[in-house]
Design goal:
This protein is mainly alpha-helical. Helices cover about 65% and strands about 5% of the residues. The protein is built from 22 helices and 5 strands. Helix 5 packs parallel to helix 14 (about 250-265) and helix 12 (about 200-215) runs parallel beside helix 14. The longest helix has 30 residues, at about 285-315.
C-alpha cells in the first residue's frame, strides 16, 4: 500500500527505489525519536552510528518491507517499556499484517519484562511474588493478542498461518540449508565476522563498560539503569539468533544502538575524560597526541569503511534493470497465462516475476517452500540445476516435462553452464532466445532423440 503510489507514478523499479529511500528515512527518524523518548543521551550520535553500521544499512536498503518492520519493532518495544498496552497490541497487529517476523517483537517484550522483574529482585530485593505480580503482563498479552488477531483478519487467512509457520519455524529456526541452497543471509554468522561487522559498537561497548566502572554518575539514574538491564536480555537473545542466522542482524543493530546509548547515558563524560587524561599523563606529549589521533582515526575509519562496502555491494554491475529481459520477452511472446517456467534458481524469481506475472515459476522467493511441498521434488530440482548429481537426459526430461509440466525452460548462464549444456544438447528443448545473461527454451517434441550430454546442438 505504501509503495503502490510510487510505482504507479515512476514505474515498478524506480518507484520502489524512491519509496524505499523515504521509508528508510522514516525508520531512521523513528529510531532517533525513540532514543530521545527513552531519555538516552546524544540520540543523534547513536542514530548516525546506526546508519553507518553495514549490516543494518545493507538490510534496510534491499527494497523490502524491512524498514517498516523495524519501525513497528522499535515503536512496539518502546511503548511496551512505557506500559502502553493498547499501542503494543496495535503494533503487533499491523506487524502481523505486513511482515512475518512479528513474534520477534512479542518475544522481545517477554524478555524486556523478565529483565525488568529481575532488576526489582536483585537491586530492590523485591519478593518473587511482588515482582511477578507487577510484571508487564498486560503488554505481553497485548503483543501476542495483536499478532494473532492480525493473522486471523489477514486477507490470506488461513493460508497465512501455514506461511508464517514455514517462514518463522521451518526457515527461521530450523533453517534447512543442508537440504536447500538458501540465501547467505540465512547462514550462521562467523564470530570474527560478527565482531568485525559491529566493530564500532564493540569499541564503544568496551569504552562504556570502562567508563561505567571508573566514571559513573554519582547519582544512579534508576530509569536508565533499569532499561540497560532489561534491554540487555533482548540484545543477548538477538545476538544468539544472529550468530545462528545473519539476517537477524537487521533487528539486532538498532537494539545494540539503544543499549550502548543507554550505557553511555549512565557515564559522567567529564569524569571519564579526566580518567582518560590521568591514564596518559605520564606519557610524553607526542605520544599522548598520537594515541588520541589513533583512537579518533579508528572511530572514524570503521564507519567510512563500512559505507564504502555498502556502496560496492548495493551497486554491482551485473544486475541491470533489464537483466533476463531478452529471454523473458521471448517466453512471454509464446506463453499463455498459467504456463510453468522451469528456471535454474529461486534467486532469479524476482526478475522473472517482474518480467511476466502471468506465469508460474518452479521456485518462488524462498526455495524452502518447494522443499516443504515436496522434499523429493526439491532435491531433484536442486541436483539437476546445480549439477550436484549426474542426471541422464531422460531423468532431466522426466523432471521438467512429466513431473512439473513445464512449458518453458529458463537458464541463467551464471553458475549453470553444465545444466545449460545438457538442455542445449537435447533436441526436445527448442531454443527461442540466447543472450549474454541467459537462454530460454520451449519444452518441445518428446519423441526427439537427445544428443550426448555436453555437446551443443550448434556443434
Amino acid at each position: 500500500l505504501f509503495v503502490a503510489p510510487f510505482t504507479a507514478v515512476f514505474g515498478d523499479l524506480q518507484g520502489l527505489r524512491i519509496a524505499s529511500v523515504i521509508l528508510i528515512g522514516i525508520c531512521v527518524a523513528t529510531f532517533d525519536a525513540i532514543a530521545g523518548w527513552l531519555r538516552i543521551r546524544w540520540p543523534l550520535v547513536w542514530t548516525i552510528l546506526l546508519v553507518t553500521t553495514f549490516s543494518f544499512a545493507f538490510r534496510v536498503s534491499l527494497g523490502k518491507a524491512t524498514p517498516l518492520a523495524l519501525i513497528l519493532f522499535l515503536v512496539g518495544l518502546s511503548v511496551a517499556w512505557k506500559r502502553r498496552a493498547w499501542l503494543v497490541g496495535f503494533c503487533t497487529l499491523v506487524y502481523a499484517l505486513s511482515y512475518g517476523g512479528w513474534p520477534f517483537l512479542a518475544g522481545s517484550i517477554i524478555l524486556l519484562a523478565f529483565g525488568d522483574a529481575l532488576y526489582d529482585l536483585i537491586v530492590h530485593e523485591t519478593s518473587w511474588r511482588k515482582a511477578v505480580v507487577s510484571a508487564r503482563w498486560r503488554e505481553i498479552g497485548a503483543a501476542w493478542a495483536g499478532g494473532f488477531i492480525g493473522l486471523l483478519v489477514h486477507p490470506n487467512f488461513p493460508q497465512d498461518l501455514q506461511f508464517a509457520w514455514a517462514q518463522i519455524v521451518t526457515i527461521g529456526l530450523g533453517t534447512p540449508f543442508q537440504h536447500v541452497r538458501m540465501g547467505t543471509e540465512w547462514m550462521p554468522t562467523p564470530v570474527l565476522g560478527f565482531v568485525a561487522g559491529y566493530g564500532i559498537w564493540v569499541v564503544l561497548l568496551i569504552a562504556g563498560m570502562t567508563g561505567l566502572a571508573l566514571a559513573h554518575r554519582e547519582r544512579l539514574d534508576e530509569d536508565r539503569a533499569r532499561l540497560l538491564v532489561s534491554l540487555g536480555w533482548v540484545m543477548a537473545a538477538l545476538v544468539a539468533l544472529t550468530l545462528k542466522s545473519r539476517r537477524n542482524t537487521e533487528i539486532l543493530a538498532p537494539v545494540v544502538a539503544l543499549w550502548v546509548g543507554t550505557l553511555w547515558s549512565l557515564i559522567d563524560p567529564k569524569m571519564l575524560w579526566r580518567s582518560f587524561v590521568k591514564t596518559f599523563e605520564h606519557w610524553p606529549r607526542p605520544a599522548r597526541i598520537s594515541a588520541i589521533v589513533l583512537i579518533c582515526l579508528i572511530i572514524v575509519s570503521i564507519p567510512i569503511k563500512q559505507m564504502f562496502e555498502l556502496w560496492m555491494d548495493t551497486h554491482p554491475p551485473g544486475y541491470p534493470d533489464t537483466i533476463f529481459r531478452t529471454s523473458m520477452d521471448a517466453i512471454s511472446a509464446r506463453a499463455t497465462p498459467g504456463d510453468r517456467v522451469f528456471h535454474t534458481s529461486w534467486d532469479e524469481f524476482p526478475e522473472l516475476f517482474h518480467a511476466d506475472q502471468r506465469l508460474r515459476y518452479v521456485s518462488g522467493l524462498d526455495p524452502t517452500f518447494l522443499y516443504i511441498a515436496s522434499s523429493t521434488l526439491s532435491n531433484e530440482v536442486r541436483d539437476v540445476t546445480w549439477n550436484i548429481s549426474t542426471s541422464t537426459p531422460a531423468e532431466t526430461w522426466s523432471l521438467i516435462h512429466d513431473q512439473l509440466h513445464s512449458k518453458f525452460v529458463f537458464v541463467s548462464r551464471k553458475n549453470h553452464s553444465t545444466f545449460l549444456n545438457r538442455i542445449e544438447s537435447d533436441p526436445r528443448y527448442i531454443e527461442i532466445s540466447s543472450s549474454t545473461d541467459s537462454a530460454a527454451f520451449t519444452v518441445g517434441n518428446p519423441n526427439a532423440i537427445p544428443h550426448n550430454v555436453g555437446t551443443s546442438r550448434s556443434n
